[in-house]
Design brief:
The structure is a single chain. The protein is α+β, with helices and mostly antiparallel strands. 39% of the residues lie in helices and 16% in strands. A hairpin with a 2-residue loop joins strand 2 and strand 3 (74-81). Helix 4 (116-135) runs antiparallel to helix 5 (142-163). The longest helix has 24 residues, at 12-35. It is extended, with a radius of gyration of 38 Å.
Length: 344
């Protein structure tokens, strides 16, 4: 009988090495089951995916110029209203001239409410210091008028905040000017400066600070510290409310008839003269020079009221024949009266 040659048992280290790949496979399979497929350690841009920031961010930005920056081929320049460059007293919608300045001019203004207790304390301390300084200044010097104005302003702020319940704000106003070329940009910036002078405001250019002003103009409520300091203006609630730069010119009655488009903002005009909630009576007066459209407006109003099912009667002493086509078109009755040889 021949004995079979037996294989030698493998060493312990070799057996351990053979079992490792099987254990690793089990662990990797468990990881895939729990956490999904492993992704390569790449950033979103390297992996080719597009994020929201990729869509919002400009492709190119040139910040080498002193008086403007170029963002995606569009020239941007910025101005700020200096803290000392506002009128002392303002009316309602006092920022409207800048809003309606024209094409390529945008307005950005920010109002930050400050704690009333801290502001009142600062105003009291500043007023006290100004009063002590005023004693050492002669009434013939320019400093005397400046200190007197500062004291009066401090007392006014204290009275408005304590007795009238107004809040205190820091207000900042930026003006953005955009154009397709540098020459047009300079023309628009100059026009904005002249416009500000005409409404008693002082606008300063953001030279060497246009990049910071561009970031400050983004809807993030994060102003550059230097721009914020130079454009800071004290304002109360009434002044901030009056700065709201939008004035509504629309006439839009709920059940009104359509008369046309507003000449200024292209908004539709709907008029219902019989709206008792809005108007005390239904009387109206249409005036204008010859050929301005008085008859056409009256026909438009009456015709569309008739289309709403309302009874309409026109009594036209002169030019009654101009209303006949509309009357027949709407199925109305056209009557011609005679009184002492004159048609009515």
């Amino acid at each position: 009988m021949q004995k079979k040659k037996g294989t030698k048992p493998a060493p312990a280290k070799a057996r351990a090495k053979k079992k490792l790949p099987t254990a690793e496979k089990k662990q990797s399979g468990l990881k895939r089951l729990l956490f999904g497929e492993e992704k390569p350690d790449l950033t979103e841009l390297e992996s080719g995916s597009t994020t929201i920031l990729d869509i919002l961010s400009p492709t190119t930005v040139d910040t080498k110029n002193r008086d403007h920056i170029i963002v995606d081929g569009v020239y941007h320049a910025y101005l700020y209203i200096a803290g000392y460059g506002y009128s002392t007293t303002v009316g309602s919608c006092w920022l409207t001239p800048l809003v309606e300045a024209g094409e390529g001019i945008n307005l950005i203004f920010t109002a930050k409410r400050q704690p009333k207790d801290k502001i009142l304390s600062k105003i009291a301390q500043t007023t006290m210091v100004n009063r002590s300084r005023m004693r050492d200044v002669g009434d013939t010097r320019q400093d005397y008028e400046e200190l007197d104005s500062a004291i009066s302003s401090g007392l006014y702020l204290k009275d408005a905040m304590n007795r009238q319940g107004e809040d205190f704000y820091y207000m900042h106003t930026l003006v953005e000017v955009v154009a397709d070329d540098a020459e047009t940009l300079e023309q628009r910036v100059t026009a904005v400066e002249k416009l500000c002078v005409s409404v008693d405001m002082i606008a300063r250019r953001c030279d060497y600070k246009n990049e910071q002003a561009f970031l400050s103009a983004l809807p993030l409520l994060s102003l550059d510290p230097d721009v914020e300091r130079k454009s800071r203006r004290n304002a109360l609630t009434s002044g901030v409310a009056a700065a709201f730069p939008f004035a509504s010119y629309e006439l839009s009655d709920r059940n009104g008839v359509f008369l046309g488009l507003n000449l200024y903002n292209r908004s539709p005009v709907f008029l219902d003269p019989y709206d008792d909630y809005k108007y005390t009576n239904g009387n109206c007066w249409i005036g204008g020079s010859s050929g301005a459209g008085k008859t056409f407006t009256l026909q438009c109003l009456g015709g569309r009221l008739r289309q709403q099912g309302r009874r309409v009667i026109f009594i036209v002493p002169k030019k009654g024949h101009e209303f006949r086509p509309l009357c027949e078109l709407l199925g109305g009755l056209y009557l011609k009266w005679w009184n002492r040889g004159e048609s009515v």
